[in-house]
Design goal:
mainly alpha; two-stranded antiparallel ribbon
Length: 196
């Protein structure tokens, strides 16, 4: 029992270290595309949720969210970060929810399917889309009246703009998660749950 707990803590620390590297080494966690970034860090959170479970996945997501929040003040990843990610509901909550959603859906589907990958793919897609929809939905909710300051577009154009971001960023991020997260998670899951 103690050995399993130690192994879990080591793997949790490993995922936290990866999140730190992805946040601070250029082009490892974010690919800049104009005022927005194509994000890859969500894949690490999803893998953590598959291997360690939804609660630990949420913890890893919380680490990412906290870094996002702090960086918005000291070293923003994009011009929008200084306005949007200073709100902890936008910076932290969606990242925590990635782990909870992906891990919970995987846990729910795993006993019902023959192959583990069949449970991971939809869980990865939904975990990724959770982040996208919560971030963009809250931007619309909290910053609708400030859309000209944020995007140099009028209020009526904000919703179509955010929907376009879902198509250009959210869908590719979900596809990347559906491909990469299961490929990394399956061998880790086998190794982690193998009896010592």
């Amino acid at each position: 029992m103690r050995s399993k707990q130690t192994k879990r803590l080591v793997i949790l620390a490993f995922f936290t270290a990866i999140i730190l590297v992805q946040n601070f080494v250029p082009l490892v966690g974010y690919i800049p595309l104009g005022p927005l970034n194509l994000t890859l860090i969500h894949i690490t959170v999803i893998v953590a949720a598959f291997v360690l479970g939804p609660v630990d996945g949420a913890l890893v997501g919380g680490v990412w969210g906290t870094i996002t929040f702090i960086r918005a003040f000291v070293w923003p990843t994009s011009p929008l970060a200084t306005i949007v990610f200073v709100n902890p509901l936008i910076a932290i909550l969606p990242r925590v929810m990635i782990g909870l959603v992906a891990g919970s859906i995987f846990k729910l589907l795993q006993p019902k399917v023959r192959h583990t990958m069949a449970a991971m793919i939809p869980a990865a897609i939904l975990g990724s889309l959770t982040n996208t929809l919560l971030v963009l939905g809250q931007i619309f909710l909290f910053y609708q009246s400030k859309s000209q300051m944020l995007y140099q577009i009028d209020t009526k154009a904000l919703l179509p703009y955010l929907l376009a971001v879902i198509g250009t960023n959210g869908i590719p991020e979900a596809i990347a998660a559906a491909i990469i997260a299961p490929m990394i998670s399956a061998p880790l899951l086998l190794r982690f749950h193998r009896k010592s």
